[in-house]
Amino acid sequence: MDGNGRWARERGWPRLKGHEQGSQSVEKVANACMDAGVEYLTLYAFSTENWKRPAHEVAGLMFLLERFLSEKVAMMNEKGVRLSTIGRMHELPDAARKRLERAISETSHNNRLNLTLALNYGGREEIVDAVRAIAGEVRAGTLDPVKISSETLSDHLYTRGMPDPDLLIRTSGEMRISNFLLWQLSYTEIHVTRKLWPDFGPADLHAAIADYSSRERRFGEAHENPITASSNS
Ligand code: IPE
Ligand code: MG
Fold it and tell me: Is 50 marked active-site?
């Protein structure tokens, strides 16, 4: 969800105003996803690198997260949104972590949209955590190293049980992955829009889905040859 700072700067406002406006986009986009039949929406809300921002900006982001949760859980239950998180939750401030745990348990029975917030998330850190867990099992003698496969890795990521993303939408025109879902994005289609996150709405989501639908996904396989595929013998 990139571009909040630029959105605020364009207006001569403090960065936090941009984050506040950005948090409004979340509900609109989540609703548009449900209308479009999307079952999994993962939002990169706070990266492991974002701690390097000024303390007041970090505190402001945590405040917005808590406010978002206290205001939206009732609506999530009305609409069938199941909340989850990926990232190193134990390093979040206590208040934010407790509010999150409550929201996750209060929405755990829902099944229309799986809304995952990536918080204190880093793709490399996720792979490191998975490798540590796997190494622990090997040391304990419960896992044979020869049996380690890409499924083993997937099953030890924060996203275990979730499908890999079909589509990655990158806002604000940046052409990079920025440590997001490094393992899971292997075959994901990427849609980059210049729209800043606070300006990103349902119409932009529909444009991204239309762009996705026009792609031919081959997953490393060859094109089907139209001549051999036809039956004009
Ligand atoms: C939001 O956008 C990212 C979050 C940490 C929520 P930015 O704050 O990175 O916005 P820009 O890149 O300065 O425009
Ligand atoms: Mg940014």
Answer: yes
Distance CA 9, CA 18 (A): 8
Q: Whose CA is nearest to atom 8 of ligand 1?
A: 5
21-45: b or e for each residue (b if 16 or more CB lie within 10 Å)?
A: bbbebbbebbbbbbeeebebbbbbb
Q: What is residue 228's three-state secondary structure? A: helix
Give yes or no: 111 in active site: no
Q: Which ligand is nearest to the CA of 46?
A: 1
Tens digits of residue pLDDT in 65-100: 999 999 999 999 999 999 999 999 999 999 999 999
Distance 37 CA to ligand 1 centre (A): 28
**CA–CA dist 103, 115 (Å, integer):** 12
3-state helix, strand, coil split of the chain in percent (to 5) is 50, 15, 35
Pocket of ligand 1 (CB under 6 A): 1-6, 19, 45-46, 50, 172
Q: What mean pLDDT comes out for the span 182-189? A: 98
* CATH number of the structural domain 4-123+167-182+189-213: 3.40.1180.10
Closest CA to 37 of 206, 189, 207, 181: 206
